[in-house]
Specification:
Blueprint: H1 2-5, H2 25-34, H3 43-71, H4 80-123, H5 128-165, H6 184-231, H7 241-293, H8 297-336, H9 345-358, E1 365-366, E2 370-371, H10 374-391
Helix pairs in contact: 2-6, 3-4, 3-6, 4-6, 4-7, 5-6, 6-7, 6-8, 7-8, 7-9, 7-10, 8-9, 8-10
Length: about 400
């Protein structure tokens, strides 16, 4: 069973390689369990379950935390550090429905189109080495999802047990049916209910965080393969001018497909990453205040781990966006430095057209306002750090 589950992380063989579409395998498995996919059987039952999962794990999770924060009398007796911890979790939970609902509304519209484009790009992989390269990038995407799943799940599990053993609730979600203050058993009952709701919500949150990274990695894979094909243009002395021109036209068609793929995924990624930057700025500010005014070393260390989790939400994708820009520049150079000096005038004119098309980089933006890059990610963190230290009173 374990081998079957992890077969999408296997090494490539001569006859058994993964396709670009299979890079999202574990993501699609998670889609089924959180109610995003539509099975062929029991569709009505699945829709009912999907509705309950969405309402409880996204909407009720944030609303329940907000109700407890406003009306729970215990909140008045909490210290500043505990209050800030609850606030940073509350704001993160309130942003969850926005990210999830935005992604769900758009994902079904472009996922099939993306698979079709990736399938056509895979058809251009004519030799075994190119197919193995696609396999390696698909494995990286699947591994990235499992790493995110492990990080997010470990946070949920550790938070649940740490709270339960001290006799409190992990996320303070309002529960009108179980009073956790009455007994130790009720603490575990209410905590388990919270955990089930939270694990579904956290899984959907990580899906909205990791899908952009997976799509960007596959984009890099096909940019690299296209660059390798460009390097081989006019390098075979046995090919005629017409055959060389045909190879160049195939590269142009592949580049057009890559641009179509980029245009398809760009609007959805732009919206979700914009929400992510807003949430990270707010939660990071609260976390830094928590560290500055915290008197408990363990609470401060826990907040630092939470900050690391916030950075992981956007930093890998921002870094990959920088790499995609570099890949576009390398493709442009490969076109210019390809073997075209002795080619026909028709070939040269076609190559100039290809070079002009390649000079437009594939750049992602957050909300069509500012570029998604490592620099932007660092600036979001740096602004919060400087603001906090400037606002801190001098003792």
């Amino acid at each position: 069973m374990g081998k079957m589950y992890f077969k999408y992380l296997r090494k490539p063989t001569a006859t058994n390689v993964l396709t670009s579409s299979e890079a999202m395998h574990y993501f699609e498995v998670a889609m089924f369990w959180v109610g995003w996919a539509q099975p062929t059987k029991y569709q009505l039952l699945y829709r009912i379950a999907s509705t309950f999962i969405c309402l409880f794990s996204t909407v009720y999770l944030s609303v329940g935390m907000l109700i407890s924060f406003i009306f729970d009398t215990d909140m008045k007796s909490t210290n500043l550090s505990e209050l800030l911890t609850i606030l940073q979790l509350l704001f993160n939970a309130m942003g969850l429905p926005i990210k999830v609902l935005f992604l769900r509304l758009h994902f079904s519209r472009f996922s099939d189109k993306v698979k079709d484009i990736l399938g056509r790009l895979d058809e251009s992989c004519s030799n075994a080495e190119e197919k193995r390269e696609v396999h390696r990038w698909a494995v990286r995407c699947n591994a990235a999802y499992l790493i995110y799943q492990a990080i997010y799940s470990s946070y949920a599990i550790s938070t649940f047990f740490a709270s339960a053993f001290v006799g409190t609730l992990p996320w303070r979600v309002y529960n009108p049916f179980v009073d956790w203050r009455k007994s130790w058993l009720n603490v575990w009952k209410a905590g388990l209910i919270e955990f089930v709701i939270a694990i579904f919500g956290i899984t959907q949150g990580l899906m909205s965080d990791v899908y952009a990274l997976s799509y960007a990695l596959i984009l890099r894979a096909h940019l690299k393969l296209l660059r390798l094909r460009v390097d081989k243009l006019c390098s075979d002395p046995g090919k005629s001018e017409e055959e060389n021109l045909g190879d160049l036209i195939k590269c142009i068609k592949d580049h057009k497909l890559i641009n179509k793929y980029y245009v398809t995924i760009r609007p959805v990624i732009s919206g979700t990453i914009f929400v992510q930057f807003l949430l990270i700025g707010l939660c990071l500010g609260l976390s830094l205040i928590n560290i500055l005014f915290s008197t408990d070393i363990w609470a401060a260390l826990a907040t630092i781990n939470y900050i690391n989790g916030l950075i992981v939400q956007t930093f890998p994708f921002c870094y990959v966006c920088d790499l995609i820009k570099s890949d576009c520049e390398l493709l442009e150079r490969a076109i210019f430095h390809s073997n075209w000096l002795e080619a026909s005038p028709r070939y040269k004119k076609t190559l100039i057209f290809f070079l002009q098309r390649s000079q437009k980089p594939l750049a992602f933006t957050a909300g069509s306002i500012f570029p998604i890059s490592t620099r932007t990610n660092i600036q979001v963190a740096a602004i919060d750090i400087f603001d906090i230290f400037e606002a801190r009173p001098v003792i």
